[in-house]
Amino acid sequence: MNEVLRDAGGATSGARIPVDGPQEMRRLGRALAALLGPGDLVLLTGELGAGKTTLTRGIGEGLGVRGAVTSPTFVIARVHPPLGDGPPLVHVDAYRLHGGLEEMEDLDLDVTLPESVVVVEWGEGRVEELSEDRLHVAIHRTLGGAGDGPAPAAGDAPEVRTVTLIGVGERWADVDLAGLVPDRLG
Ligand SMILES: Nc1ncnc2c1ncn2[C@@H]1O[C@H](COP(=O)(O)OP(=O)(O)OP(=O)(O)O)[C@@H](O)[C@H]1O
Ligand SMILES: [Mg+2]
Q1: Ligand 2: centre distance to CA 71 (Å)
Q2: Where would I find the beta strands (DSSP E) of 7-151?
Q3: Mutation test residue for ligand 1: of 53, 137, 141, 143, the one with most atoms within 8 Å of CB
């Protein structure tokens, strides 16, 4: 079951969603894409290999953009143009974005951020100033239900992840993040 998170002020909304395997992570991305529009900023956090790019791949599929989303290893940002009339997806790997926001603005993308959906891996603490409204998505590995144990060693533990979504700002105040259900893969 998804857990609803809400702060007293009401300007922050959130949810905690269990995700069982990479396929389901993609399907969650597809479902999330249905909530996203031009100007939206999504910040992804989670340790190496947590599933940030996998989630972004699903977002790209859900938005209907050109090109499969892959790890932007050799570039800081990649623009995926829309195939239909939706927004482009700008996928940023901020891991090496040491100059922070200015460097991001200097990337000389051929789309503007207000017309795009911008998804930033490792974005927390680096690009918040791009928008007052933003969606923080944190991916944690969990040992089948036992919340706070050490991260399981690769290969020998249940591949369950927990995705925590926190919407910051008015944009997200009334969005039903807890209602997100991983989409079917078509
Ligand atoms: N929910 C999940 N459960 C199990 N495995 C997953 C899940 N999501 C993704 N994976 C797998 O974990 C591996 C790493 O995923 P991915 O590249 O998306 O991580 P990442 O967070 O982007 O890593 P990096 O920090 O290197 O950018 C992939 O093999 C992917 O299939
Ligand atoms: Mg990645």
Answers
A1: 5
A2: 12-20, 41-45, 77-80, 89-93, 117-121, 134-141
A3: 53
Domain extents in the chain: 3-146+155-178
DSSP 129-165: GG-SSEEEEEEEE-BTTBTTSPPPPTTSS--EEEEEE
Mean pLDDT for 8-36 is 88
Ligand 1, atom 18, lies closest to the CA of 51
98: left (phi over 0), alpha (psi -120 to 50) or beta: alpha
Which residue type is seen at 184? R
Angle formed at CA 171 by CA 167 and CA 175, multiple of 5 degrees: 65
Q: Is the CB of 46 under 6 A from ligand 1?
A: yes
Q: Is the CB of 49 under 6 A from ligand 1?
A: yes
Decide if domain 3-146+155-178 falls under CATH 3.40.50.300: yes
User: What ipTM does the predicted assembly reach?
Assistant: 0.96
**Which residue's alpha carbon is at the smallest distance from atom 25 of ligand 1?**
48
Which residue's CA lies nearest to atom 9 of ligand 1?
51
pTM here is 0.88
pLDDT at position 146: 47
CA quadruple 173, 176, 180, 185: dihedral positive or negative? negative
